[in-house]
Write the structure tokens for this entry.
Amino acid sequence: MTAQAHSSTPSSAPADFTAARPEWLDGLWLILPTLLIVLGMMVVPLIGIVVVSFWTQTGFDILPAWNLDNYRVLFTEEGALYRILIMKSLWMSLTATIAVVVLAYPMAYFMAFRIEKSKLIWIILLTVPFWTSYLLRIFAWKVILGFNGVINSGLKFVGFIDKPLEFLLYNPTAVTITLAHAWAAYAVLPIYVSLEKIDRSYLEAAQDLGDSKWKRFWRITFPLSLPGTISATLLVFIPTVGDYITPTLVGGTSGIMIGNSIVTQFGKANNAPLGAALSCIMMLAITLAVCAFLAAIGRKRLKAADI
Amino acid sequence: MAAPMISLKSVSKRFGTFAAVDSASFDIAPGEFFSLLGPSGCGKTTLLRMIGGFERQTEGDILIDGEAMGIRPPNQRPTNMVFQSYAIFPHLDIAENIAYGLINRGLDKASIAKKVAQALDMVRLSGLGNRRANQISGGQRQRVALARAIVCEPKVLLLDEPLGALDKKLREEMQIELRQLQKSLGITFIFVTHDQEEALSLSDRIAVMARGQVLQIDTAAALYERPNCREVAGFIGNMNFFEGRIVSIAGGVAAIEIAPGQHVRVPATNGAAPGETAIVAVRPEKIDAVATAPQGSDNVVSGRALAGSYLGDRSLLLADWREGTAPISVSLQNRRSAVDADIFTKDAELWLTWPIEAGVLLKN
């Protein structure tokens, strides 16, 4: 007997649902397309990367000779550059992420608490930068920060400087600034959603119980916006660590990140196994960084924020 | 009245030409259980929120314990609020919620813990201190909100329809608890409700509001027995209205012509003058209905039965007395073993009578 037969034929005998399809299967059809894409386009290549990272490049051939050489090299003199690059990438992303969250939070706060009508317009306005391609936005920063760029010519015009400032472009700071701008909108939305969800009577109650507005923010608003703030942090931090377009365009030689050297390994250097190993190490490093971040927030607060 | 705890001086809240609260002026005594009663949108919550500092009045001022509040924010007022939604902070447990205001008063940890334990005990929630809002029932949440406000020892406790979300039985229990709590603490309570029974049973005095205006402030009995206008009379309990014109006033009794040649008599009020239009209001339970023409009654109106219903302790009767007017409702106590059964048949002829002092003369 099928499940359908059970539900459509009324019978006096107690219903027997043991033959029915288990409940957890109910949503399967809905996620199946996504699941297939994730399996085919993400899980399989990921396994591939992990497998290749244990192989060896000889000349133009990749030999399935299993060994740990690619990882070992990272802990030798020769691999110092990679270690530095990984640390630097984590550091630059962290700086960019902090900048993004600090910038995005007031924007989200403004939208959630100060805009009464037509919030949709503000959300659409927020997406306007995305109407141009990422590449164009980076180039825009090149124009702004460049040798004869907007800032330099502006300052020269006003007379603050005689010759263009050279520290603006082609360095880690330029990468951080560009990343922060490019990712700000991604951070605003989750923070906005969790701020918007806060029942206004909590804020009134806090003030009623003696909080000043500033105190109330730290005791009520901020803890209750943690889910959005944490997801914004992760949403920006994780993808920016591996970014290589931004450093390529505005980073110069001092601003390159681990992503650039992975690209080099897969391309010019023609050492895919080493590139794969670097990718794996980077993934591991990001995982550790995220775990450290969540541990710093603490179990109690995560539980309280219902994450 | 002793020095008032709250004194409202023509407090208004206007949005353009619309007045949410229109020039409210009254005093509330220390230790009083004072209710703001009215239909939704009458301005009662706005008035409460202005006292608490959550909204700014556009005119007038509010004095709490003799001190003018002006536009002081809620954290600088000697008031605490019990919110309609309770607003129990979801990221804190019950004990932390109750301790919230105490932390702001700079108490040390030990005395905070002691006060929290006492407060939990007072609202019978001992042992639930480390639960969260979503782990307790609605009635318990309500008591947490109450404890959290009371523990701050406010001069005035503001309650915004605190029992509205509870089911009937729980609400009645909480009413008794609230009343006992208020008596034992001696704190002034200002209680907002749209439930007239709740207001009548709890309050020392009630302000009836409509359209932003305070219509009447009185004790429950006075509001019921001596409403000062048609709106109050109609909002509190049921009321029958006879519209007419004052024809004479003699010896404190006014005669009102409610239909050509038909007069009823009612105690005269100050300022009533012959010739004015007026309304005679009579409660359903103060009218008697009989099947034979009564002799020597103060007021007699003849009519016809429309519908009757037996409710056990009493019977309800709807009677038509004149074409084009609202039917009169009569509530008869089933004290006699045989109320004239005839008068409940549809179209039965009957007489409605009531004594002079049962009626209330209202301005039209």
In short: Chain A has one domain: 78-304. The beta strands of chain A are 56-58, 61-63. Chain A has a mean pLDDT of 87.
